[in-house]
Each structure stands twice: as C-alpha cells, then as structure tokens.
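Dear colleagues,

As part of the handover before I leave the project, I'm documenting each prediction I ran so the next person doesn't have to rerun anything. This entry is a single chain, and its sequence is reproduced below.
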Amino acid sequence: MKKALTVLLLTALMTGLLAACGSSNNEPNNTTSGKEKVVAWAWDPSFNGKALKIAEEIFKKENPEFELEVIDMAKADLEQKLNTNLAAGVTNGLPDIILVNDPNIQKYVNSYPGTFTDFTNDVDFTQFSQYKVDALTIDEKVYGVPFDIGVTGMFYRTDILAEAGFSAADLENITWDQYIEIGKVVKEKTGKFMSTINPNDEAWTSILLQSGGSWYITPENTGNFVNNPVMTETLRLYKAIADSGIAKPVTGWSEFVGSFNAGDVATVVSGVWQIASIMDAADQKGLWAVAPTPRLDIEGGVNASNEGGSSWFVLEKSANKDLAKQFLGATIGGSSEFYERFLTEAGGVGSYIPSFSSEAYQTTSEFFGNQAIYSDFTAWSTQVPGITLGMYTQEAKDALKNELPNILNGSDLEKSLTNIQKLFEQQVQ
C-alpha cells in the first residue's frame, strides 16, 4: 500500500540514527560473564516491569541460573524505536521480549512477517478468556502471550444512586437507553451528572462497539462504518448521551479523573485498571460499587466489554528465543501464582481463567462496599465478545474523532458515517 511504502521510505532515512543506536551503551547486552540472559522492553516499571520481575522470581525457583534484564522506556519511544528498526530491517540491539499494546498486534505481525514467534503450541490458550486470545490470533497462529486486560464495568456511587431512588438491582444488566433514563433521574434529584463525555476520546465508542461484537474496521482491514448496525447504534447512543444532559463535558485525563474524585458524577464506565484512580479519593471509601457494563439493545449485545490491554511478544531472531518462550510460557502463560501476585502486588488483572478461583481474586474491598470486585470483573471477562482489531485501529479512530463534532451538532448520521469511511480509506491508501 502507498502508506506502507511511505513509512518504509521515511524510516529508511533514519539508518544513520539506527547505526548510532546500535553502538549505544544503552542497548541490551544478552550475555553476562559468558551466560545467556533474556532481555525485555516494556513501559511503566511499577506495573509492566513489576510483572516481569514477579515472573522472574517464579521462574528462578526451577531455573536458578536464569537472568532477566528489563529495559524501561516510554510507550511511545518503545513503539517508535521498534517500528524504526523493523522497517529498516535492523534487528541488532532489539530485545528477546517486547510488550505490545493489543490494538497494535495485527499491524506488527502483518507489517513485519517472520519477525514475531508463533506461540500456538507453547501455551494452553484454552485457559485464557477467548477475546484476549482472538486479539493475538492471525491466520490460525497465536503470536504472543496474553497479559493484562481492560475488562469493563460500571463503577457507581451507591449514595448518589440511592438518593435518586435506585438500588444495586436497578443497575444489573441494563441497556444503554435505560442507563440514560436513570441518568436523567439522577440529574433531576441530586444535581449530579451520570457520567462524563469527551469528544476527543474514543474510549466510550470502543467499549460500546466491542460489547456488540464489532470494531472500527473489518477483519479484512477495511473501514467498518457504513452498513454496520453496531456502529450506527453506538453513535446513536453516543449522541443521545450528549443530548440528554446527563454527561459532564471534560477535556483530558485530569478533568476526567477529577470529575469523579470530586464527586461530580455518579458513574464511571471504564476498564478494571480504573480502580486505582477511583480509590485516590480516600474520603469516598465505602461509597462505590461496580455493576456490569450497560449493553447495546441489539442482537448479540452483551453486558461486558473491554478497554485496553497488552500482550508479550518474542522476536523470532532474538538471541535467546527459546529461553524467552520457555520463561513466558511457564509464568505469564501458565501460572496462577503469577496472576495472584500480579493482582496483590501490582493491582493488575489478567485473563488466565484458572487464577480466577484463587483466594486473591475472591478478596472483598472495603472501598467498594465489601464487594468481591475482582471476582466480578474476571467473570465478566469471560463474556467479552472476541473481535479482530486489525491493522488500522488508530487510523479508524482518528477518522471517527474528526467527524464526532459534526455528529454531536446534529448532522445526518448516515452521511457522517459515509464521511468517516471515506476519510479512513484516504488515510490508509
């Protein structure tokens, strides 16, 4: 494709930079005193890096000579460095293991064939939530090990909902239209918003789409905006929420988090990783609970979805490919102990089903009214529809965001969907 050729030409111009990188003292060294070791690239040392260190401790029980070096870098820097090297055909200095954001999986595998190792026969993928495995599967091969998930729920303030006359039972397995009606009552009786809305953030549309088993693009990497009932319903609801007056407009992450930490909104529909931000408001301890995500009122719509998540890849030509695969397979790919410690020590939730029945996942939370929130989230994770994220998720999201202001201002929805489709096609030509 023209776009792919342009990327290759641009990245080829960076050969000089790559040469400099290859001689940098910051590059991974896969030998220590004559012994081989595994090198991994990841972002966020307190979460992803911590997970690798937990896995290393577990693996070393049976493999005491094993060594792991984790190189931390910003997510954007990691992705730029990986893409630049791979597009130019430079593999020297790359690690054995790399963390990949799930929406990038198919783009990496399809853009750089033969670069990433096939894990199909190395991990029992029947032990993971199916939607997570689906994201890793291309041409019937599984190119990685599932890691953290972003299974969603509807966090809600029990006191605000009670003031408006609603109980926990009223929030179980509702549709988005019911959510809007509840929000209108909450706004009228308490003065609080039901939620936030940010036209520059596609998180909400992503949640709605996946709950209906659809995505921005098709498995064939074409735009999925026109003649897609799930997309049409998603954007209808998005506008309905905006028009209803139940959503507080915000811009950026700080305003979003500040809105619920300050008690301005009654619910937050988001991934399980949002728990830490909600708990930042210590004065709200005991006032929160979690219900299933509202669903689209269409065939195939479910009260479960996902927002975010990542997986671990091994480079096919890495210095210690076999050892890296063995390490990941025995820990992140097949250890309940790992996922129990990942939850208790880093607050991370995975999709490894055998760990769901462990004591760690059954623990109740005083902050959330003594609800066993992790048990609920993991149960919902098994219901999330599996979808193909494709190669051009970000391009499709950008095309949608370009048209969202027009949709919110009342433009004809079918016309807007056609505009989005055309813009997406122009971007990926």
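The longest strand covers residues 145-157. The radius of gyration is 22 Å.

All the best with the project,
I.
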